[in-house]
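Standup notes
- DV: blocked on the single-chain target, sequence here:
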Amino acid sequence: MAMGEPPLRRCLVGGTFDRFHIGHEVLLSTALRHAEKIEVWVSDDTMARQKSYLIENWEHRSTEVTQWLQSNFPDRYSIHSLDDEFGPARTREDCDSIACTVETNTICERINSEREMDGLTKLEIITVPHVEDALGGVVSSTRIRAGIIDRRGQPWVSDELMVNSYRMDTSLDAELKAPLGEVFTGPESTPEIAMGKALEQIIHPPPALIAVGDVTVQTLLDMDVIPDVAVVDGKTKRVKLPESENVDETFFEQVLKAENPAGILTPSLYAACRDALTSDLSTLIVVDGEEDLAPMYLHRLAPLGAAILYGQPQQGVVLRLTDEEVKQRCRSLLDAFEVL
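- DV (later): unblocked, structure below
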């Protein structure tokens, strides 16, 4: 064997590989330090969807794995579809190793026990430690889908949001007025028409249904839909509503208060949004000031797949499912705000 060549010939690596992240990179690169070639077995959609409907499809997941490997270790890998827990590892005689994380090590031990009973050579188990994220947790697809961290292990929100207030730069006015999601139109006199169109687009029950704005919240309540989180400020089109038209707080299991002047994002609003999204109770956030910018915090705090609804003047209602793209957009927009 030439100096520097990996000591093993062929290593098996199995996993879901959803939202391909830095932990996946470490797993694959470690396997390739030990073996000349690797076979990556990516869980098929049937297996993956047993974990969560939010897991991306096999084609997308396998493509992300392929792109990273091709950029870093060309010609040293192959990609396959995995349709059971063990894959080919129990019977293959042309492989000499298997790579796994700490939590799947026991599966590899079981595979070796079965191989031994069948008279096959045990696979060398390469156990790869977890990558720690910036919050002290483990970088995982689960935490990424929960909206806590990005794929590099960085949090979507920071402690600075608990202490700083931010003023919107006037140069962002046009961008912030543009809808963050898809607009569903309908007459202002019957807002339930636009709302009905939006709700029809939510195929799966979202991890959280979030409504921003008095008319938006009231329309949902009139349709017998209680959002998990609702944010109101007692105004419509920045005109104060008569007290008799305020959203009835008794529809919700808890009510939080926040202070947030127009054009500002405050620690008070951030804390209310955070507490609402981490609660199991349906929550109404009543803002003293304005709630227009609340989606900037809500998207960054929400799990992937959360549905956020808010009104679009003279048009209807906007729906945006929280994803990594909108989280990044809200992060970038806030970076352009002035710290007060």
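- Follow-up: The chain is about 30% helix and 25% strand.
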